[in-house]
Design brief:
InterPro entries: GH. This is Glycoside hydrolase family 5 protein. It comes from Hydnomerulius pinastri MD-312. Keywords: Signal. There is one protein chain. The N terminus is likely disordered. The protein is α/β, with parallel strands linked by helices and 577 residues long. Strand 21, helix 8 and strand 22 form a beta-alpha-beta unit. The strands form seven sheets. It has an eight-stranded parallel β-sheet. The longest helix has 20 residues.
């Protein structure tokens, strides 16, 4: 049985208003007619640029956590990009032959760093790592360490011997950074690892019967516990039938018997669950009780703590304190938070998370005038349902990319990941319409193209019927994502490039033998994109070299891709070398 979409949307909108009423600002902005305009502050500072080259020497374990059973085959990831912005941890470097490194004739052989990783007194190893490398894997046997709940402090240092052509003098430069290694005792209970090479999660089967760890991309939905799940467990079957692999019950979970039934059903169906502590994440004893009770769930995927702490102006340290407590007690599951604001105190809030979800809902808003509060929306005032948005799909692309960029600037590009929350509601409150299936899919695709490694749509049940609705699209889309897209996204050896061609957003992965092309026309016009516009200039025979996997309002001809407004497509390609 399906619930009425309109009802779902109204409930969604009303719960948003309820939340809002508790906070007299949103994203630090006043939004009511009787309030004045006060700049919210809290903006993310852009790094200053540097005329001289800097090296952003970074070091992180390849997996978090490692288990005792992994000890002999652990690895660290070393990044040594040369940058020209003062991002966190970047230090000036005098490059070998620095006077000619940019010249096209120079070989760009920048030389190598001698990198040493030390953990306590027992583990110590040095290897040569190329300068300007991304994702260099430094294998390290950590089995002589004691597996324990407390993470190890890891010291990573590098020396660089530069020779200059002008003088034959060799100078030695030193760089250092720290990392945190979580090396936990083996367990048969549930463990969710994060692959810091790709940002993907690795899980055992959700049914709790054991099995190997496999990488996967979470695809799921938020579902209200009391309004839907508690009344109709068959919604969980429906979500599974739609191809989703994860469910996020929205608290409060106020009937423990029914909540247990929900948990049992998700385990039986092999769905992962996100345990949400939004209503009491600042109450550390309540958090401790919940972690004690639920950390052994076989299908527990993540702990979600702060929900829109930036919107509500929660205390800056709250999410971090909860995060530290969860790691003291558990450590086997990552911690996620949801940020709603485009630019409000990003840095302090993300300190409390491994996974940062964005939940911008741009479809059907009036970006300049709030129909709820009857005031205008500007960068300094107002609440239009999507902070600092334009009201198009581009808002999603920008939001994901902005969050990724900031994490990189902060030095968290390996240790924190971004997930997306595709809008799957509307027709009430700030939203005059619900996204179509095509728009919903486009939000998911552009998010993948900008580095999102998980997707939790808001909210279920959603629009049903034919393939133009969200649920109708999802049945095809979830399978393609799992079978075709996921293998590229979770492949640490695959390369990835992003393109913007006339407003068409494209992501191109290459796993060494095949390409995956994911395209979404975020423009409201028709666009033609030649193959070379998305990095596939080597295609000489589109019929034999390009395979369509999925497309809506989008097709190809011999020389490229044709898009109608909002068209989306997924292709694999094997052009000649
Ligand atoms: C402003 O208006 C809101 C409702 O529109 C009301 O709840 C609030 O008390 C008012 N604040 C002031 C300072 O008048
Ligand atoms: C470092 O690598 C990037 C990406 O591969 C490249 O664009 C850049 O030119 C390299 N920098 C130097 C100084 O060689
Ligand atoms: C690890 O580093 C943190 C932060 O620098 C420090 O508080 C902690 O005491 C260190 N732990 C050990 C075991 O050295
Ligand atoms: C720098 O230039 C010197 C002299 O031309 C050359 O011997 C040396 O190999 C170069 N170093 C690197 C790292 O390319
Ligand atoms: C690394 O940790 C050590 C010991 O806690 C500290 O002295 C040092 O400043 C840290 N280095 C960096 C680059 O953060
Ligand atoms: C929980 O739900 C069950 C089934 O609807 C009901 O029998 C029970 O009274 C509820 N418990 C509480 C504490 O509300
Ligand atoms: C937003 O609302 C204002 C005021 O009602 C209206 O003038 C404007 O046309 C609306 N804009 C959009 C894009 O609907
Ligand atoms: C959208 O397409 C139009 C017409 O082709 C083009 O002028 C415009 O630059 C495109 N928009 C973006 C964001 O690229
Ligand atoms: C690359 O992807 C294609 C298509 O999914 C697959 O058949 C092939 O085995 C992959 N190659 C490698 C090296 O992983
Ligand atoms: C593409 O390859 C197919 C199969 O080999 C062939 O029939 C077709 O003529 C080729 N098309 C072009 C434009 O070369
Ligand atoms: C979705 O799958 C159905 C059944 O396999 C198929 O008929 C339909 O064309 C697919 N839709 C798209 C957009 O690929
Ligand atoms: C493919 O379509 C584009 C846009 O309609 C057109 O400009 C181009 O000539 C077409 N290519 C071929 C080979 O028909």
């Amino acid at each position: 049985m399906k619930y009425s979409t309109r009802l779902a949307a109204v409930l969604a909108a009303s719960s948003f208003r309820t939340a809002l009423a508790q906070s007299s600002t949103w994203c630090g902005k006043n939004y009511m007619a009787n309030q004045t305009v006060v700049p919210p502050g809290g903006q993310f500072p852009f790094p200053t640029s540097s005329a001289e080259p800097l090296v952003a020497f970074r070091c992180a374990p390849a997996f978090r956590p490692y288990l005792e059973e992994d000890g002999k085959h652990a690895a660290f990831i070393i990044d040594t990009p040369i940058v020209f912005e003062n991002i966190n941890g970047a230090a000036p470097i005098s490059l070998s032959n620095s006077s000619d490194w940019w010249s096209p004739s120079s070989s760009h052989n920048l030389g190598k760093l001698d990198v040493t990783i030390s953990i306590g007194n027992h583990v110590h190893s040095t290897k040569e790592v190329p300068l300007n490398a991304t994702g260099y894997e430094f294998s390290l046997d950590i089995s002589s360490l004691q597996a324990q709940k407390t993470s190890y402090n890891v010291s990573c240092s590098a020396t660089y011997k530069a020779e200059t052509s002008s003088s034959s003098k060799t100078t030695t430069q030193h760089f250092s950074t720290n990392a945190s290694l979580l090396y936990l005792p083996d367990t048969n209970a549930s463990v969710v690892k994060t692959d810091l090479r790709t940002g993907a999660l690795w899980v055992r089967p959700a049914d709790g019967k054991g099995g190997a760890f496999e990488p996967f991309i979470p695809q799921g939905f938020y579902v209200s516990f009391d309004q839907y799940l508690a009344k109709n467990l068959s919604l969980i079957d429906q979500l599974k039938a739609d191809g989703f692999n994860t469910i996020h019950p929205i608290p409060p979970y106020d009937n423990a018997t029914l909540f247990q039934q929900v948990l049992d059903k998700t385990v039986e169906l092999g769905l992962y669950i996100i345990y949400d502590m939004r209503s009491n994440y600042q109450n550390l004893s309540a958090v401790a009780d919940q972690v004690n009770t639920y950390s052994s769930l076989p299908n527990l995927l993540t702990w979600e703590t702060a929900h829109e702490p930036d919107g509500n102006s929660d205390p800056f340290t709250a999410a971090r304190n909860t995060y530290d407590l969860i790691y003291q007690m558990d450590g086997y599951h990552p911690v996620s938070i949801v940020l709603n604001c485009e630019d409000y105190n990003f840095t302090p809030y993300v300190e409390g998370a491994d996974i940062v979800l964005e939940d911008a809902y741009p479809i059907g808003i009036n970006a300049t005038y709030s129909p709820v509060w009857h005031t205008e929306c500007t960068p300094d005032f107002g609440h239009c349902g999507c902070d600092n948005c334009k009201g198009t799909l581009v808002d999603i692309k920008s939001r994901i990319q902005t969050y990724k960029d900031r994490l990189n600037i902060l030095g968290y590009d390996r240790t924190k990941t971004v997930w997306t929350t595709p809008q799957a509601m509307g027709s009430g409150g700030y939203w005059s319409t619900t996204p179509t299936g095509q728009q919903w899919a486009a939000m998911g695709l552009t998010s993948l193209n900008h580095g999102a490694t998980g997707s939790m749509s808001f909210q279920y049940p959603t629009t049903t019927g034919n393939v133009s609705t969200i649920e109708g699209t999802a049945t095809n889309f979830t399978v393609i994502l799992a079978e075709t897209i996921q293998p590229f996204v979770v492949d640490p050896t695959a390369t990835f490039v992003n393109y913007n061609y006339g407003g068409v957003d494209a992501g191109l992965w290459n796993n060494g033998t095949a390409y995956l092309l994911v395209v979404a026309n975020l423009n409201s016009t028709e666009v033609y994109v030649p193959w070379e516009g998305v990095g596939l200039g080597k295609v000489t025979n589109a019929t034999t070299q390009v395979q369509r996997i999925f497309s809506v309002a989008q097709n190809t001809n011999a020389t490229g891709l044709n898009f109608r407004p909002g068209g989306i497509g997924i292709y694999t390609a094997t052009p000649p070398k």
